[in-house]
Structures are given as C-alpha cells and as structure tokens.
Specification:
alpha/beta; globular; 2,3-Dihydroxybiphenyl 1,2-Dioxygenase, domain 1; four-stranded mixed sheet; 17% helix; 2 helices
Length: 124
C-alpha cells in the first residue's frame, strides 16, 4: 500500500516574491526558491509544511472565504498553538481569531495572509 507523506497547498497570487517574503518575515517560513526570472513560482517551508505560490496570469485566485464564510484555505497542524499565537502577534501577523477550543477538541488560531487567504493553525 502507498503511504501518503505530505501535501503542499498551492495558491495563485499576484506577486510570488512579496508573498514568499511575507511568509518568511511574518509567519516564520524559509524560502526554498523562486523559479524563472522574473519569478513566476515560489516555495516556502516551515517544519514539515510547504506552501507553493504561482503567479496569476490574470486575477489571483480568491480565498475560499468568498464562497463559504467559515471555510479556510489551508489547515496546518502544530504542536503548540499558544506559542505560535505569541510569535505571530509579535511579528505583526493578521490574527483573525486567537487560540479557541472547538467542539471537535482542537485548539485553533486563524490568520489571514497578505493575499487574504485564511490559514488555520490547529493543535489537538
């Protein structure tokens, strides 16, 4: 049987460099690389999580929030959401909702990135 190892959400954005730098400077990711000149694709990682950004040919993709109010664009499991909350507050991240215990026994924090995508960081 095949074992799945990880997944990398891929967002279509207006500016891949600005997005990768935001993820590095505000959310603590490492920039893995840019592709083409000028860049049309970028990859970032933090721990075992990777995010990919592709340059939009026209309008960038909308957040899932435009289609469903309580949705998210990426759901990331972490081992200490409280510490991450403190880190993100210190770095100026747009924290939509601080750590909140959900009925399904996870503690979640919601963050909006520089493109309006909603990232949920969860411990549970």
């Amino acid at each position: 049987m095949v074992t799945f190892k990880s997944v990398a959400p891929s967002f279509v954005v207006a500016d891949v460099v600005a997005t990768a730098e935001y993820y590095r400077d505000v959310l603590g990711f490492e920039i893995l690389g840019y592709f083409a000149d000028p860049p049309v694709f970028a990859m970032v990682s933090r721990g075992g999580v990777e995010m990919h950004f592709g340059k939009a040919d026209g309008d960038p993709q909308p957040s899932n929030l435009q289609f469903r109010e309580i949705s998210s664009d990426a759901y990331v499991w972490v081992d200490d959401v409280e510490a991450l909350y403190e880190e993100f507050n210190a770095s100026g991240a747009d924290v939509i909702e601080g750590p909140t215990r959900r009925i399904y026994d996870c503690v979640e924090m919601e963050v909006r990135d520089c493109n309006g995508f909603k990232l949920v960081f969860s411990q549970g």
